[in-house]
From TrEMBL:
Oxidoreductase among keywords: no
PROSITE patterns linked: ABC_TRANSPORTER_1, ABC_TRANSPORTER_2
Native species: Thalassotalea insulae
Protein name (Swiss-Prot/TrEMBL): ABC transporter
The keyword Transmembrane helix belongs to this UniProt entry's keyword annotation: no
Record's keyword terms, sorted: ATP-binding, Nodulation, Nucleotide-binding, Transport
Assigned protein family: Belongs to the ABC transporter superfamily.
Domain ABC transporter: residue ranges: 2-236
InterPro entries reported for this sequence: AAA+_ATPase, ABC_transporter-like_ATP-bd, ABC_transporter-like_CS, ABC_transporter_ATP-binding, P-loop_NTPase
Superkingdom of the organism of origin: Bacteria
Gene that specifies this protein: natA
Length: 248
């Protein structure tokens, strides 16, 4: 379970200050896929970076399975898989070596590590990719390696930032199927998006963020009812009070 409590974060430039988070609070439960939906610049990535421990909030806190991220970052990260917005692969490594590296960073060793790597490779049906260097991999292949390295330590919680950006239909379907399988095992999944169809198709609950704070939350159907609209896109525009930065 992931909880975000009254997060505030400002970025200071020479002439102006950007308030990226302005008192954002929500929770994402086990056995559910929760989507953070918001227009460009709403604060989604800033919120996720705070969860990973890459940014520290000016005020408020985030917890992963009850562990406060800033108080015990290593323990919190052990319970978290991260799928970042850019796939940073080490192109001279094979897919196996890449996954092995992340498994080691999470403290896995020896036979337990080998077993964990083999399990995730089998789970993602990437046996044919495993011993190839990742240089030249397609976006879909890179996505699989990124998923494998995020989940090799079998975290309870999985956070993804704009996971389907740049993926074709087949890769998007593979990712969605995998997230549904992961959810069925009782894991907590939180992902950010500004793509309506993706959120409507995948999410049990939606957190709508605008101007760094919660604008509304609920199931896609509840949000439509709240806004008196049939489509999530229309409901979203009504609930944030603008259509700026919205992607269909
Ligand atoms: N490192 C930074 N330095 C200065 N400003 C930043 C920094 N990171 C984010 N911001 C600003 O904070 C605000 C929120 O940005 P953030 O990336 O969290 O939004 P987002 O909802 O993820 O947007 P998008 O959908 O476009 O990715 C934006 O105005 C952005 O320009």
């Amino acid at each position: 379970m992931i909880e975000v409590n009254n997060l505030h974060k400002s970025f200071y430039a020479k002439k102006n200050t950007v308030k990226a988070l302005n008192g954002l609070s929500f929770s994402a439960k086990n056995g559910e896929i929760t989507g953070i939906l918001g227009p460009n610049g709403a604060g989604k990535t800033t919120c996720l970076r705070t969860l990973y421990g890459l940014l520290s909030a000016d005020q408020g806190f985030a917890t992963i399975d009850g562990i406060e991220v800033t108080k015990d970052p290593l323990a919190a990260r052990a319970k978290l898989g991260i799928f970042p917005d850019k796939f940073g692969l080490y192109e001279r490594l094979t897919a196996y070596e890449q996954i092995d590296y992340f498994a080691s960073l999470h403290g896995l060793q020896g036979q337990a590590k080998r077993q964990a790597i083999e399990n995730i490779i089998a789970d993602l049906e990437m046996e044919e990719l495993a011993y190839r260097k990742t240089a030249g991999f397609s976006q879909g292949q890179r996505m699989k390696v990124t998923l494998a390295q995020a989940l090799v330590h079998q975290p309870q919680n999985f956070v993804l930032d704009e996971p389907t950006r740049g993926l074709d239909v087949m890769s998007t379907r593979i990712l969605r199927n995998y997230l549904n399988k992961f959810k069925a095992k009782g894991h907590c999944i939180l992902f950010s998006s500004h793509v309506m169809q993706e959120v409507a198709a995948l999410c049990d609950r939606v957190i709508i963020v605008a101007n760094g704070k919660l604008a509304a939350q609920g199931t896609p159907q509840e949000l439509c009812e709240l806004a008196g609209e049939q489509q999530l896109e229309e409901a979203f525009v009504k609930l944030i009070g603008s259509d700026e930065g919205v992607a269909a």
